[in-house]
Amino acid sequence: MALATCPHVSVLFLSSKKLFCQPCARLWPIASGNDEEGQNRDDEEFSERQSHPLQHGLALARVPPKNLASSESGGHTLQVLTESRCVIGLGANLGDRVAAFESTVTLLARVGCIQGISNLYETAAIGGPAQPDYSNAAVLLSTGLSPKALLEEMLSIELRHGRVRTVRWGPRQLDLDLLWIEGVRVDEPGLKVPHPRLTERGFALLPLLDVAPDAREPSTDRAYAGMRKNVREQAIHVHGFARPWTDDWLAESPSGRLWQIADLGL
Which regions of the chain carry the CATH code 3.30.70.560? Predict the structure, then answer.
């Protein structure tokens, strides 16, 4: 494999024939040979991806999850992030919750590949002031973003939906949690993966199992499916059944909603 020389010691995002360097803001070819037509096609694809601010080269990878690889190029070490499966929890108890979730799915599709959507659940709020019940769901996403970069995108999506953090455990228009990344454990200030209370909260665990029934705790390799009994006594209700996921839903005019809603009050 031939790598063009990148002037940065960078994290690059892997695609089929190119690498994207964020500091360079450009694509570097990784295939040898003179494929002018293919390179032009790649450049057109990159220009289209740049047309939306959330995409800016963040969703170029479409390869099996191998987490992290390295290559040497021109004396520089290039870290290549390939895709990993992760589950993002969605919660809201203000406004049109279903519309907020559908909008969130559209935005998450710009930073990765959507692989599944959970059923829609409703549960009473835990802690904080008196407030409405919550709607909860989960999205299975394949992405090349690092955990920290993914968290930043999630916080940006929350802000776009009017999320303001004023009261701890208070009501919110949208709450996104990085519940799980396949084979990855993160313990940093402001970010812990898996979510520390994942196995204690049915509104997080049940949606996760809908989209990733094979998910396992990365440190112990225990199957989360065996922990379902931990949340059996919690009052959680299914109020929307997920329709089979298809990328066609991301078209400009989606046909139908993501969930078949059982409770019109949602």
Answer: 84-261
The domain covering 84-261 belongs, at the CATH homologous superfamily level, to: 7,8-Dihydro-6-hydroxymethylpterin-pyrophosphokinase HPPK (3.30.70.560)
**Do the beta carbons of residue 88 and residue 180 sit within 8 Å?**
no
- Specify which residues 80 forms β-bridges with: 12, 69
Write out pLDDT tens, residues 2-16: 344 444 433 444 443
How far apart CA 137 and CA 207 sit, in angstroms, is: 6
Least confident of 75-79, 236-240, 250-254: 75-79
Active site residues: 163, 172, 175, 177
